[in-house]
Amino acid sequence: MANYPLITQLLAKEDATDDQNPRILTLFPQFFEALTVFLDYEHDLSRTESWDPAFAAWQRASDEAQGTMLELQDQILELTPCTPTEKPLKLLTFGIRLAMLDEDGEHRERFRDIVRRRGSDLLIPEVCDTDREVNVLLKRTLILFDQLLDLYTDEPVEASATL
After folding, report:
1. Contact, 25 vs 89, CB < 8 A?
2. pTM to 2 decimals?
């Protein structure tokens, strides 16, 4: 899963600045990983009874992954995009934040519609290797976004988003 070393290497080649401040491009892959881990644990928990010995450990691990994900999400949302490539990453992070704040599920179907029908609008023109890697990451994150929406839905839903 470790996508971020590749993106960091590509950035180093393409951007020769010595700016050591965190950037959305370097934080987003870590956010993606934390979201993946969180969703994996939540999926396992949804299929496990609370009396199962693994439940408590998975619950703790899920809470830790969620904490990491939320911390990275906060950091990304505080930053201003430095390049056009960072804009869709921040927008997707914001969309995930909004979906997580929708506790009663009132807008869940609208989020699902946006992810499935308009998610490809976030993709950027592929001019360099970093752009290609960002698009791969965007596509994978859109699938996770759809899975996040499925996770908190009690009724069965049709197939997840594919790009």
Report:
1. yes
2. 0.80
